[in-house]
């Protein structure tokens, strides 16, 4: 008889521990926030020129933006500046002609860019940054 009452107590404890009376968790809510970028304080009035629309031979319009000048910046900052301006098709090359890869972009300085700064180009234009190691 003692065994049966011990089993009954054990069964009651197990059922209670299994969550028979556990309160329901509150439902998960998804919150979406929109963040707007603020213009850089270092922007000059020329950097804020509005994009211009051009018509292609096929009749579609292409937005052209002014290409920022990144010559003299370290390669990483130059890439970041171009991407912030909406240019994402980027390539970088060793300006010394040795064909080295720019593994750590912050150790390289941009010596030339193609197309040149100030030109109005579409956002899908390939922009090549020529860089050399800092101190070379």
Structure description:
The chain has 136 residues and is an alpha+beta fold. It has two helices and six strands, in the order H-E-E-H-E-E-E-E. It has helices at residues 2-20, 75-84, and strands spanning 52-55, 61-66, 90-94, 108-114, 120-122, 127-133. A three-stranded antiparallel sheet has the order 1-2-5, with no helix packed on it. A three-stranded mixed sheet has the order 3-6-4, with helices on one face. It is extended. Mean pLDDT is 77; it is low at 38-45.
Topology:
Blueprint: H1 2-20, E1 52-55, E2 61-66, H2 75-84, E3 90-94, E4 108-114, E5 120-122, E6 127-133
Parallel strand pairs: 3-6
Antiparallel strand pairs: 1-2, 2-5, 4-6
Biased composition (Polar residues): 35-45
Domain PASTA: 61-133
Pfam families: PASTA
What labels describe this entry?
single chain; 6 strands; 136 residues; alpha+beta; 21% helix; signal
Give a short synopsis of this structure.
This protein is an alpha+beta fold. It has helices at 2-20, 75-84, and strands at 52-55, 61-66, 90-94, 108-114, 120-122, 127-133.
Can you give the helix content as a percent range? 10-25%
Order of SSEs: HEEHEEEE
Gyration radius, to the nearest Å? 30 Å
How would you sum up the major sheet? 3 strands, antiparallel
User: Structural class of the helix and strand makeup?
Assistant: alpha+beta
Give the count of helical stretches: 2
Mean pLDDT: 77
Alpha-carbon distance between the two ends? 92 Å
Weakly predicted, low-confidence segments = 38-45
Strand arrangement, major sheet: 1-2-5
Shape: extended
Please count the beta strands (DSSP E, at least 2 residues each). 6
* Amount of beta strand: 15-25%
């Amino acid at each position: 008889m003692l065994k049966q009452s011990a089993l009954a107590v054990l069964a009651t404890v197990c059922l209670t521990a299994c969550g028979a009376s556990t309160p329901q968790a509150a439902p998960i809510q998804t919150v979406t926030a929109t963040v707007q970028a603020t213009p850089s304080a270092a922007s000059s009035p020329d950097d804020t020129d509005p994009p211009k629309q051009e018509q292609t031979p096929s009749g579609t319009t292409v937005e052209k933006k002014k290409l920022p000048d990144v010559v003299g910046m370290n390669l990483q900052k130059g890439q970041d500046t171009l991407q912030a301006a909406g240019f994402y098709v980027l390539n970088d090359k060793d300006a010394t002609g040795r064909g080295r890869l720019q593994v750590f972009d912050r150790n390289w300085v941009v010596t030339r860019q193609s197309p040149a700064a100030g030109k109005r180009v579409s956002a899908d234009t390939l922009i090549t940054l020529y860089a050399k190691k800092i101190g070379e």
